[in-house]
Amino acid sequence: MTIQQVMQYLPQRYPFLMVDRVTEIESGKRIAGYKNLTINEQFFQGHFPGAPIMPGVLMIEAMAQLAGILGFYTYEKSPETGHLYVFAGADNIRFRRQVVPGDRLDLVAIPTANRRHIYKFSCTAHVDGELVASADILIAEQVL
């Protein structure tokens, strides 16, 4: 999926859109994509001046957005059809190294459970093949 296709599934926009491209998608099974990080990202200006690193909460948000795209794609829904997938929680969060300007944050989300419009995903983030973050993400479906 190109960025234009990603934006059909996600209601977030700059500066809060955290997925630049989807590289793989298999309905109900797996999704992979990435976020390119440049020094121009607004959060790098204040986190931290002179030693910029991506905030961990934004890595979690990137994983959640990718998981949301898989939910929309799998169930053939979108914000245009009056549906939203919103972040509902995260468990087993681990950060293993810092993510800095110039990195490409490669993301993967795999569904592991669903119950009553709550979906759980096992998510990972890598830079240059090295695991930098992981979490179990919960996404809730809402009808607008």
SSE topology:
Layout: H1 3-9, E1 21-26, E2 30-36, H2 42-46, H3 56-74, E3 83-95, E4 104-115, E5 118-127, E6 130-143
Antiparallel strand pairs: 1-2, 2-4, 3-6, 4-5, 5-6
Descriptive notes:
The protein is an alpha+beta fold and 144 residues long. It has one domain (3-143): Thiol Ester Dehydrase, Chain A. It has three helices and six strands, in the order αββααββββ. It has helices spanning 3-9, 42-46, 56-74; strands at residues 21-26, 30-36, 83-95, 104-115, 118-127, 130-143. A six-stranded antiparallel beta sheet has the order 1-2-4-5-6-3, with helices on one face. A hairpin with a 3-residue loop joins strand 1 and strand 2 (30-36). The longest helix is centred in the middle third of the chain and has 19 residues, at 56-74. It is globular. 29% of the residues are buried. The mean pLDDT is 96.
In short:
The chain has 144 residues and is an alpha+beta fold. The chain has helices spanning 3-9, 42-46, 56-74, and strands at 21-26, 30-36, 83-95, 104-115, 118-127, 130-143. The protein is built from three helices and six strands, in the order αββααββββ.
